[in-house]
Amino acid sequence: MLTRLELTDFAVISRAVFEPSEGLNVITGETGAGKSLLVDALGLIMGDKASRGVIRTGSGFAYVEAIFDVSSPSEGLSAFLKEIDIEPEDGMLIVSRKISTDGKSIARINGKTVVLAMLRQLSSFLIDIHGQNDTQVIFDEGSNVDLLLSYGGDDIAPCLEQYSSNLRSYKETVLKIRNLSQSPEMLAKRREYLEFAVNEIDEAELKPGEEEELLNKKRRISKLGEISSSVNEAYELLNEEGVLSDMGRIFSDIEKVKKDDERLEDIAKRTSSALLDLEAIRDDLSVIVREMDFDPSEEEEINRKIGKIYELKSKYGSNIEEILKFKDDAVTELDSFEDNKRTLVILKKERHEMEERLLKSAEDLSSLLKEKAAKLEKEIVSELADLEMPQARFSVEFTRRPKDRFFSSHGIDDIRFMFSANPGQELKPLSSIVSGGEASRIMLAVKNILSRCDRTPTLIFDEIDMGVSGKASAAIAVKLSSIAKMHQVLCVSHTSQICAAADNNYLLTKSMYESSTETNVTKLDSEGKVDEVARLLSGTGDQRSKDLAKSMIEQFGRRPD
Prior knowledge:
Elements: E1 2-10, E2 13-18, E3 24-29, H1 37-45, E4 61-69, H2 75-83, E5 92-100, E6 105-109, E7 112-114, H3 116-123, E8 127-131, H4 136-139, H5 141-152, H6 157-180, H7 184-204, H8 210-238, H9 243-257, H10 262-291, H11 296-316, H12 320-337, H13 340-386, E9 393-400, E10 413-420, E11 428-429, H14 436-450, E12 458-462, H15 470-483, E13 488-492, H16 496-501, E14 504-512, E15 517-523, H17 526-538, H18 543-555
Parallel strand pairs: 3-13, 3-14, 8-12, 12-13
Antiparallel strand pairs: 1-2, 1-4, 4-5, 5-6, 6-7, 9-10, 10-11, 14-15
């Protein structure tokens, strides 16, 4: 459950800490105090998109941090955390979002940066938010079947899994038949393409790991070419017609005149030594030139083979292994062309048998869903009666799907919820309801029923009592208290009845300064709770209102002290 929510420079809040407990936590405050900011902040924790508009004026960023107690995680949550490689610290998860003025948003779980998709998936195990305008799941006909499946829970799961398994097998077989039943022209083109591909790959004579081997050899030959060119050039320069010839003439000229100048005697010796060294260098280079086996045509062949590999990679795979696998798969498919007729006969027989099994499992699922729907109808009508709608009728309508789209992911029936608020009114699709008060109570009735099988630890209701009368608000308060016995409930409210029914009360207050507005969150003690209920009752908080507030709190089984 949520144990702490901290907001920094978020909208009109410079810093606020909200620490809800178990049970029913009710948040109240004057209009404009920003009661729904806490819900908006949790929306960011759940992975909602963020905008720079949430940053408090004059600040560089907004920061939201939530701490969840996950000391007893569900199997789904444990599996997800293992998948993203995050370990709870002392049974806690710390989730944060930082939104900067440049529009960037950074999300973290226990200090590890994550993408928003991870936050959204994580939040599905932790929080469920319902607002006055957030009833689309219940009133969206496409989601009605999902709600019924949730209500059926473990009783329906095996039957649904059997149907889903049969549907997958059936679809796979239908797809195989469709592929094998293509027109002769398409099959001929496919065969031609596969035969060309197989021949092209075979001609390349590829071997696993060959590309790297060729690239290494290409690098070696490239270096060898450079060495060969330099050595040959040096050898040519030292040849008889090159430097050695010039050096020989120099030695001969000095040798002739060395007797006439004693200084030339030493120069003649040094010139003779240099000439011998150059001759030795020439002889050594000659040996290297003879021993160096460089064939330019080999480099051309390597370049040709590498080029062919690149060409095949552009067609059949990102590496040689994938290219060879493509060839093997192509050979298998070509072989299958030889006995298509026999295969088609077998597959069509299998399809007929699968369709019978699928239809039976679909009928079983439909029957079970109808049983659950009948129970759900009675429970919702009972819940609505408790919520001051004693004449309301609720029905789950089943319509057999047309043949062209007979099997869906949830069976062979389209399902929608039907509703009538008053006697004499015909049942109409729930999606056609426009009354905010009716919508809130229906949503709460469904949520109260589903909460018995819903494993989400924290449920949030944002002004669910909007547009509802005082008597109906009292009934809503009772329902919220009932849900709070199985879940942590956070409720933003403006009615005295829900405030009185709370296990924990929090007040948002707004302070005006010369150039700014600030909102604060305060947990109310017993006296503060009485004052707040009284304020919601009369707007003044006089003694008569306080006495009435105490009485109301006692009616909900709370001690006003």
